[in-house]
User: What shape does this take?
Amino acid sequence: MGTKKKLTRLSNHFYFTIDILINFIILLAKLLVLNMKKLIYTFTMLAFGLHGIAQQKSTLCGTDEHNKFLQSTNPQLKIEAEKFNKNWKSYLQTVNLNDLKKVNKLGKTSAPKYIIPVVVHVIHSGTNSSTNISDAQINSEIDFLNKSFRNLNSDSTNRREIFKDIAADCEIEFRLAKKDPQGNCTKGIVRVYSPNTNLGDDVLKRISVWDSRSYLNIWIVERILKEISNGVVAGYAQFPFATSSASTDGLMVDYKYFGQLSPSQNVFNTVTTHEIGHWLGLFHPFEGDSCNNTDNDGLSDTPPTYNPDGARSGTFSATLNSCGTDNPDLVDQQENYMDYFNCKERCSNMYTYQQKARMHYCIENYRREIFSAENLVKTGVNNVTTTCNAIPSFYSNNKNICTGGSVTFNQNIYNGTATAYNWTFSGGTPGTSTLATPGNIVYNTSGAYDVKLSITTNGTTVDSVYKNYVTVIDNKNATQANLNYADWQYANDWYEKGWRFESENGRAKWTRTLGVSFNGIASMKLEDDPFNSVPSSGIEQSFISPSFNLLGATLPTFRFAYAAALVTGPPPSNTKSTDDLRVYQSTNCGTTWTQMTGTGSVSTGTAISTTGLTYLNWATGFVPSDASKWREVNLVATAAANVRFKITLLRKGGSNFYLDAVRVSSSAKLGINDELASSINFNLAPNPFNTATELTFELTKTSEVNISVIDILGRNMGTLLKGNTNAGNHIVNLDRNALELNNGIYFVKVEIGNQSFVKKIMVN
Ligand SMILES: [Zn+2]
Assistant: This one.
């Protein structure tokens, strides 16, 4: 696959970074072995570039990187891609290219051969944000696509003579869906508020996705999160042959590159046209980063081009031939939508007849359902326009607050217009509003509250009720009732006391399981997914505590025990599980979360397993048979007035997960477990000390021992001993320099089995 793909925007000048300059120098060296013509071109470009003015940043296509990433996480996709390439080659053997070309010359048919229903998910960062692009902007892009794919684009006159008779009417038309997956009237546009719209990737797609067998999903985001070093990714698509990743199928486009209306700075941009080319199986003409024809895009009417690190870029040049040795020796087809020459009024204005054949092949073999007559009825795109009811959607700046806090609500009405608004805020002040944007609502009493928005649309009233939308935490009650809530084992009152289990997709369920536990009689179990159907990016399941007043506590702790196993998923992919576990705390009732530090606060990949590195069969259904199959996590919390805890499992194909013995306490008070310390004859001397001190203790039996040093903020400064330790006398040295301790107070934390105590030490 290629390295850096450019979709450099139309510009008379283009922006030269030092990187690009270096690339040109590298390119120069490479080209010395090639022909003279190219050398002259390169000098021309270099001279031009040096005169160029920094006007626009390079924008890139992220499809190849996305494809590489998918293949690295799911080997099945690599097999699918190889199979596709092989099948395409054998298919080409059966086709007479001259016939294809002849048919192409006969001109266009009036009706499109394929109609593709489209849904556009606008993931925006607020009503007043430019990321929430208008319906008109979206419609302008659909019109533009239909011109590009039918060879009706107004800039087709810029094509050079040599490419005129190979440009194709692709006979594909795109229509915004008129029925959603539930059969309701839709404009084919979904608007979702998310502060994460600047983190555009496959994870974000889960916020709104329609069945990719019936719709082409297009996600519009503020910024695409792809790791490409020398530019901004404007869009990326998923290839049709990535069939085992159906939930992420479609394309994601930066909002600045979607739509053709002023004042968008990107009128005539072809990013979406290009990405749909990928979605229908087309490669870049410089695929493979070489001039080897068979290595490139698999087609013979797009001359191979060479694009090391995206160095060949930007401005139209009639003589540019980056692969002078190809046969026939053709200049680069800068007119092609799949190359990155996106120069205004000169470039990016055509698909070829072989690209058309390849897209049709992919539609027929990989996207059969989407254009079927049944699907056109199901998605409503065969119908005349109807007027839909508006959808009474809304969002807020926050959903978790402390008592006395406020929440700001904003309407997010789409799919139609509303003529009246009626808000109801249970537990809020004011309790109702008839404004479109009701502003701040104050919540004074703890609890979980519904928010209801009724609107009038087309003369009828439509409601949306978001159940338990706002969670208000009562700091005072938490202080009294829950401080030192030791050995909680999910008895009957956990929900009333404010403990919550949250599942991102609402499908997975936590259930109280008798007979399986770390201690006591029961634990909470999160069932595995028997169909292993979660997306490769995972699904989040969280367990959240109420808020605790830990102000003034010395080394308060958050502890829990869990059991998890590694598992191999069902065939054909046999994907190995890679669940992640992370522990967070919040000091503002859950408005924001910070990852905790210390052993067990993060477990990624195989580290999550409490049962070794053996992978169970997916059908086994893991059950921890005894206490050794559990792991206890003991973390130091912030000593603040209002502390909540959250354990998040990012489920990526794992088996059953068990949670038990969740405790929040200030138990690390000095001397609280003197009994344990004296039972092992624990001694620490000298204390205070200057350079080193010595810890001694005696074990009566082999035990799991963990001794660490913690600072007054709860940060782990280092581990002195960890692991299975034999019975007998032990001496452990604490060297101030080895742990890089400054003068001050620290704590030595000693854990033996499930018990622990803390000793204060002073370095001076
Ligand atoms: Zn691309």
